[in-house]
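Summary for the steering committee. The consortium agreed at its last meeting that each partner would contribute one worked example illustrating the joint modelling workflow. Our contribution is presented below. We chose a case with several input lines so that the handling of multiple components could be demonstrated. No manual editing was applied between input and output; the record is shown as generated.
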Amino acid sequence: MEGKANIQDVAKRANVSIATVSRVINNQGGVRKQTEERILKAIQELGYIRNAAARTMKSKDTKTIGVIVPDINNPFFPSVMAGIEQKAREKGYFAILSSTNESPVVEQEILKNFIERGVDGVIITTANENGDHLKQVLEQGIPMVAVDRSIQYYDVDTVLVDNVKGSYQAVQHMILQGHEKIAIICGPQNTTPGRERFIGYKKALEDYNLKLDERYIFQGDFGERSGYQGAHQLYSLEDRPTAIFSSNNLMTIGCVKAIGDLDWKLGEEISFFGFDDVDIATFINPKLSVVSRPMHALGELAFQLLHERIQFKDPVPKREYKLSPELIIRESCRLRYPKSSPDGQSLKK
Amino acid sequence: MEGKANIQDVAKRANVSIATVSRVINNQGGVRKQTEERILKAIQELGYIRNAAARTMKSKDTKTIGVIVPDINNPFFPSVMAGIEQKAREKGYFAILSSTNESPVVEQEILKNFIERGVDGVIITTANENGDHLKQVLEQGIPMVAVDRSIQYYDVDTVLVDNVKGSYQAVQHMILQGHEKIAIICGPQNTTPGRERFIGYKKALEDYNLKLDERYIFQGDFGERSGYQGAHQLYSLEDRPTAIFSSNNLMTIGCVKAIGDLDWKLGEEISFFGFDDVDIATFINPKLSVVSRPMHALGELAFQLLHERIQFKDPVPKREYKLSPELIIRESCRLRYPKSSPDGQSLKK
DNA sequence: CTCCTAAATGTAAACGTTTAGATTTTCTTA
DNA sequence: TAAGAAAATCTAAACGTTTACATTTAGGAG
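What follows is the complete predicted structure of the assembly.
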């Protein structure tokens, strides 16, 4: 009983034509109950499993979507993926997941492969927002939705987190606590999240009449190491900041590590706010205040948009969703008494 | 210029037959340079991309492997996945990833779908080691390798971590520090890791003539919550343990959280060793000692074994690898002075 | 210039489905 | 019970490749 049975074998055994078998496999109805049972029995006995490749050849669709993430080790993406997968499974879709390690070249290859395989749609967090490597996909009429990073030159549905709002609120929170020397550890400025979180930071300072101080701006790369370096550099400043805003989870980890190593008193000498919740946030003392992103929801929404595109091929205009992040206030930001020593004696007002 | 070009179109445009085109697509040689260039040009101009489904119909293989994990949110699996993916890409394979949420039913469905798609192989961490749902895959002659959890009734290549050794060493370490009342937070006993880590624990106690105390054995389920509950229960004991060994990462997190909430002095009143390294390990004070698994290597090896099976279909006997975990000694285990108050005054020899 | 051989290219038959459209069977109704 | 309609079933043609085998072409040797 090799795994060889095909629809022919089933048809023969059930004494019907392959068309009828096909009908019951896809429950299209119009088959007498008695016949159906006979066919089902034959399928059972032969251990028949339909061949997806052959099916795809005729019907075009694969019930497969391709998912591209830049870094599978960043816990943000598995979470998003979980959301995607859940919704996908509900609708009978499967997901091919590939990680680019932030390499546009790899991304290009993966996309080509996705097209070869005839994926019904693509969900992507691109490694290169300005690239034209996405063109090929769109040209094939394959729907695409961008997650977390938007795409420059093409109109694709996009699901973002409101980064500006998130970082604005975080920085605002620190300002309202009396901080004036607030540093930021930035992400790469050629990525949407990196850029936007910086914008929120600037906007908050502006709205509260604090001037931007170059010394307090550290350019990181979203990697743990750069967070570590950032904190070190800020610490080495003559005039240290009293608060730090870190632009993503990994840098937060690096940053907090450095703060610990430097014996910089978190929540006292230095307040802290991070973008993205992290496991460690509630383990260190004081607990970290963070901006939390609705990752699962992001994934669910992304699939939902994609699915709509897959089903109704009509050209609906591009849609863009911005999900609001949530401020989780814990303990790493303490009231600050401006212009005075940090002992809290001379409370202003 | 719809994304419709097929091999026929290319052939026509290059003024050759489809056979020749096929030959250059698969670089099989035997095509005059001049002709090849003409074909390449046509491909370029038409934006032709070969149809994987049609290809698969003839040549049988899909260059796709299916990967099944029980919980995509457990950081262990993305790490393994990264290893798999890296090796796979090197060999021109792609991976379909699906998460079962520990549900054997879902797992069964996914496997069926994998067969439909004609994956060339399967890498799986099964949700049900005793299930016969794996039979269908093997029957189709699809190679399979098990990762982290072995499979009962079938002979498949297996890549494991030496759980017994890991937990043995961890417990041994605590014993040698003088601990006698060592508790364990177990994983489910119907999974290999859960079982084996418990065995290592028992063995260590036995070897050092410590008797197993039922009160110090807490049955968890590898989830964070159960770790939390475990620590609570142990704390509520009249005669508290002086050390805890936690069987996995998530339970470690729960456990450490509880210890914090209970104000149980980590590293002083209670020593701790966890299986699996976690982000938080180096953030809390004292830093956590853990057993660390070579996750990336696990994934790489798994793919390698699978690839061998795919290439050489000959029935090689089942192979089983056990990778050694590594003990990372940090600070959460302190010397214990047995039989005396924990103030360390009465050091026994 | 022929002939022969080897290299290059072409022809046509699968692969396993789905699905119009044709045909047969069953059921209803007069 | 026959006719007609409706339901069930069948036939055959795709889908886009790969590949064994057949055919043509090129290039030397005589």
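The longest strand of chain A covers residues 64-69. Chain A touches chain B through 54 residues (CB under 8 Å).
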